[in-house]
Amino acid sequence: MDSSSADSFNIRDFLRLDMFPHFLCPGCGHGIAMRALLWAIYELEIPKDKLAIVSGIGCSGRIGAYIDANTFHVTHGRPLSFASGLALARPDLNVIVITGDGDCLAIGGNHMIHACRRNLNMTCMMLNNEVYGMTGGQASPTTSEARYTTTSQSGCIEPVFDACALATAAGASFVGREVTIHLPDLKDLLRQGLAHKGFSFIEVLSDCTEVFGRKNNLGESPEMILSQKSRMRPSSYGSVDGNIVDEPFRANTLPTGILSRNERPEYGDTYRKHAADIRALKSGK
Amino acid sequence: MLKQIEGSEAVAEAVALCRPEVVCAYPITPQTHIVEGVGKRIKNGSLENCEFINVESEFAALSVAIGASAAGARSYTATASQGLLYMAEAVYNAAGLGLPIVMTIGNRAIGAPINIWNDHTDSMSMRDSGWIQLFAETNQEALDLHIQAFRLAEELSCPVMVCMDGFILTHAYERIDMPTQEEVDAFLPPYEPIQVLDPDEPYSIGAMVGPEAFTEVRYLANDKQLQALRLIPEISNVFKDVFGRNSGGLVQPYRLDDAETVVVALGSVNGTIKEVVDAMRKDGEKIGSLGISSFRPFPQEAVYDAINHTKRIVVLEKSMAPGMGGIVDSNVRMSLSGLSTPVHTIIAGLGGRPITMASLREVFEIAGEDRLPRIQFLDIDHAAVEHEIVRARHTRRSGPTAESILRHKAVNPAQKG
Ligand code: SF4
Q1: Do B28 and A134 touch (CB under 8 A)?
Q2: Does A167 sit in the ligand 1 pocket, CB within 6 Å?
Q3: Domains detected in chain B
């Protein structure tokens, strides 16, 4: 399927409508990310019964509850660990982790780097909105310098994590980043991540209008996502002058698209092969 | 000065008045407003010489506080629920090292299933960690207990948890008598650590200790709690001299004199219980209550002295020990060993279930007629439980209990927090 599937894709087929109304704020980017994910799942024709969606705590984690599939809402920071157990026990499932910048990079940071290192077959969609939204807007490891949050009241002075650089360095075999305004691109990126065998890490730049945008005078959702777009430097644009143009005087410093990919062995395969070898050795074959 | 403010704000201001030097923050509902409030005071300059550190988890929050405290800084953090469980290793560590950290717990249930509302399961999980645990009945008391907690912690060199009911206190606006900086300074002297990492006088903190001394170390941890039994009332008395009000202490008796039924409880529910006691007293019932302010150390003698004369005891608690019953009730029974007074347990308010005066009055009246079972869950929906038991019996793969009960009750989980 190609993006003409936009017409046939009906998001309601993938939602637990009895869970609505949902609790995301108006303008929150998380809903767009969820749409992109479900659209990618639709295009790949993954049966719902073969989906296992694991989510952590935070506004990002709430998304899992709205998806009509096997969903597992777990403790703060731990979705990648729960998912690792799931993926090892059930290699036939498409394991998807939905997490946020606080959940994945702060309290779950250790699990994140080890999940990348192990390269188990799963897709991790990390929604980065630079803030702990659910608890009312505290600084996270991706809060940009000088941004105001309720716990950086004079402006944040801590340096941020570059989640994709971290994932690449830690060994994730598929790493990409996208912004919510490019919905079809985001869908395509997620689709490729889902199809990739190994640990796929996808950072989605989302926007928290309510407790981050408001506090930093970033405007509402359209202004916030346009400002993200203006910083993008999509790998797919290649050398089109290097700079794209929404805000002409601002450098486009944010790499998006597929940032790294390799075919190193997937941990589940390695594990099962190793186990089979040992069994064969023991039975003298 | 009288103020009408949120409980979390009141605690934040009280903590700031105690001049902490390091405050570690990690957000978790319903505690977050407190650390935010402290941060606000650092920004506006009313709290000077304090480092506010955003950490990556609760485990880091308390670990940073431990490091700061070992370096001689007055250290503070706050957490709740899952956050307290996640920091559990550091909780025991702080107590084992005897570092006088003060930590607020905005009491909240523990999952799974996820629940952000109030009960006491979180702090109960750490009851044996060696921390002192004080429970506040009102926001005024929560504020007062923090000021007392720093003094208590530093005199004993032992960490103190101040437990306040999540939402019921943390998010409630009440009238607060806010002390002045001079009053707090007069009550709380500057921190003089009894152990401090100092390059000029180097020694090690937290060394490995084998079987040859571990028992003695643990004995002394218990002894420290016993010392606290003496110190807590003393400090509460000094507090009264300086600030002019009763706050804290070990236990808070209410209309016990000729009481035949005594209700024992921790935290904010004591307010509701007192109202019910008053109403029942008006109708001639001989009932009183005993609030436990210090849960660790558990004031066995004070409890015995307060209620040994009564005919029956009802322990109302917001926690339970699955496979056993109550937690507070075992402590109360222990305090009364040797007596044959019946002790009934009412498990109430789990995961934020409201505890109404009407429900309390009903069970207290049943208790007065000696018809209360040994243990009872207040306002439990027996039909929902039965339905779930039958359902689970019929299908092996019956699926998750929580979701099924919600479906049965036709509650939309998305709207349930
Ligand atoms: S608080 Fe922020 S992240 Fe959470 S739902 Fe609202 S806008 Fe989205």
Answers
A1: no
A2: no
A3: 2-243 (3.40.50.970), 251-377 (3.40.50.920), 382-415 (no CATH)
Which site among B34, B50, B56 would you substitute to test the A interface, given the most A Cβ atoms closer than 10 Å to its Cβ? B56
d(CA A99, CA A126): 5
Name the burial class of residue A148, with classes exposed (0-12), middle (13-18) and buried (19+) by CB atoms within 10 angstroms of its CB: middle
Q: Which residues of chain B have pLDDT under 50?
A: 416-417
pLDDT digits (tens, 9 = 90+) for A105-163: 999 999 999 999 999 999 999 999 999 999 999 999 999 999 999 999 999 999 999 99
| Residue type present at position B79 | T
CATH number at residue A148: 3.40.50.970
CA separation for the pair B406, B240 (Å, rounded):
48
CB contact under 8 A, B36 and A152: no
CA atoms within 13 A on the CB side of A8: 9
Would the CB atoms of A23 and B40 count as touching at under 8 Å?
no
Pocket test for ligand 1, best of A62, A126, A210 (most atoms within 8 A of CB): A210
Q: Is any atom of ligand 1 closer than 6 Å to the C-beta of A137? A: no
Pairing of strands B132-135, B160-165: parallel
Question: Six-digit token pair at A128?
Answer: 């980065």
Give the C-alpha distances (Å, rounded to integers) separating B373 from B172, B290, B348.
34, 20, 14
- Partners of B321 in the β-ladder: B325
The model's pLDDT over B257-293, given as tens digits with 9 standing for 90+, comes to 999 999 999 999 999 999 999 999 999 999 999 999 9
Structural domain span for residue A27:
5-282
pLDDT in tens, B28-52: 999 999 999 999 999 999 999 999 9
Number of domains in chain A: 1
Give the pLDDT confidence of A46-59 residue by residue, as tens digits. Answer: 999 999 999 999 99
Q: Which strands form B251-254's sheet, in the order they lie side by side?
A: B251-254, B287-292, B261-265, B312-317, B343-347, B375-377
What pLDDT, in 10s, does the model give residues A162-217?
999 999 999 999 999 999 998 999 999 999 999 999 999 999 999 999 999 999 99
